[in-house]
Specification:
The chain is an alpha/beta fold and 319 residues long. It has helices at 13-29, 75-78, 107-122, 134-145, 168-174, 176-181, 188-197, 201-205, 210-222, 225-236, 250-254, 273-281, 298-301, 303-314, and strands at residues 4-5, 35-42, 47-55, 59-64, 84-89, 127-132, 150-156, 237-238, 241-242, 260-265, 286-291. The chain has a single domain (4-314), classed as Alpha/Beta hydrolase fold, catalytic domain (Rossmann fold, 3-Layer(aba) Sandwich), CATH 3.40.50. The protein is globular and about 45 Å long. The strands form 2 sheets. Strands 1, 2, 3, 4, 5, 6, 7, 10 and 11 form a 9-stranded mixed β-sheet that branches.
């Protein structure tokens, strides 16, 4: 019998209240008001409780975040997507979804199964998929496993691939030092350093990420997300690099038939323009757009340009 894993408890309800207030403030800054629901997703060895936020109406698109955040961290992009039903998924253990023990599991299979279960619970048959960073892997795994359910894929920012070593922060998170990192109270100064290192220095200096900083400090302090992300990273990263099955192989990419547009910021240190051009060229319907000066989360640096790109791509006739 499957075991239901409940959402990891906060230290107290005050912490949850503080986090929800921070979420509300970030959404409010962009004039958005999502609805929330939780869905139970059965997996082979467990049932995971997934948090889903929804905004807008129209053709559905699911959003899968990276380690940069979840839920409201999409806000600048969502505001640029009128006419799209934006369905925002909290990955297991990230945000307010319940955690999942990835040890001894096939990460790609679990990612695809989680998304398939969420789509089934939401009554969504065929969707567009928008991923960011590690969320791009989830989008690709869904398209490989259930090609008929994915119309198009938007991949934002660099993602883990075999050609790239794990980013420095991810290696630190997996190391013994990571156990301390996830317990140190986050601060705006720490986050500024991290965001500057992934290409967002100009936006930070211009004040474009002030609302993000306030929310992300609360996210790190008031939810157990980073502890769960560390456990996930330790399950997929070894001293020699990514475990087999975590990143895509050439055969995996060949199985992706959905059109994919990758939007990559030239200041994103996760790979290079040449690497991602080679990546998209290996797809049957892949294309690459470069956002000059943007970092790992390009929609925070230039939401109008990124939003226009995503809108145009999602409005193309589906195959």
């Amino acid at each position: 019998m499957a075991t239901t894993i409940q959402t990891a408890p906060m230290a107290n309800t005050a912490r949850l209240a503080r986090y929800r207030q921070a979420e509300h403030d970030l959404w409010h800054a962009f004039g958005l008001e999502p609805t929330e629901r939780f869905v139970e997703v059965p997996l082979p060895r467990a049932t995971v409780r997934i948090r889903v936020l929804e905004i807008g109406s129209g053709e559905p698109a699911i959003f899968i975040p990276g380690t940069g955040g979840t839920g409201p961290y999409w806000a600048p992009l969502i505001r640029e997507l009128p006419g799209v039903r934006c369905v925002l998924i909290d990955r297991p253990g990230w945000g307010l979804s319940s955690p999942l023990d990835y040890r001894d599991l096939d990460y790609g299979e679990v990612a695809a199964a989680t998304l398939i279960g969420a789509l089934d619970a939401l009554g969504l048959d065929r969707v567009d998929v928008v991923g960011a960073s590690i969320g791009n892997l989830w989008a690709l795994r869904l398209a490989q496993r259930e090609p008929g359910r994915v119309r198009r894929i938007v991949a934002l920012g660099g993602a883990p691939v075999a050609e790239l070593p794990a980013p420095r922060f991810i290696r630190l998170l997996a190391s013994p030092l990571g156990a301390l990192i996830v317990r140190i109270p986050s601060s705006e100064r720490m986050l500024r350093g991290q965001l500057g290192a992934i290409g967002h220095g100009a936006s930070l200096a211009a004040g474009r990420m002030d609302d993000f900083l306030a929310w992300r400090v609360a996210f790190d302090r008031e939810t157990p997300s980073l502890r769960h992300e560390r456990a996930m990273v330790r399950a997929v990263l070894t001293r020699d690099g990514w475990r087999a099955g975590f990143v895509q192989t050439g055969a995996d990419l060949g199985a992706v038939t959905a059109p994919l547009r990758m939007v990559f910021g030239s200041a994103d240190p996760t790979g290079s323009v040449d690497l991602w051009r080679s990546f998209t060229n290996r797809l049957s319907h892949g294309e690459l757009q470069i956002i000059e000066g943007a970092g790992h989360m390009p929609w925070w640096d230039d939401p109008a340009v990124v939003g226009r790109s995503v809108r145009e791509f999602l409005s193309r006739p589906a195959g």
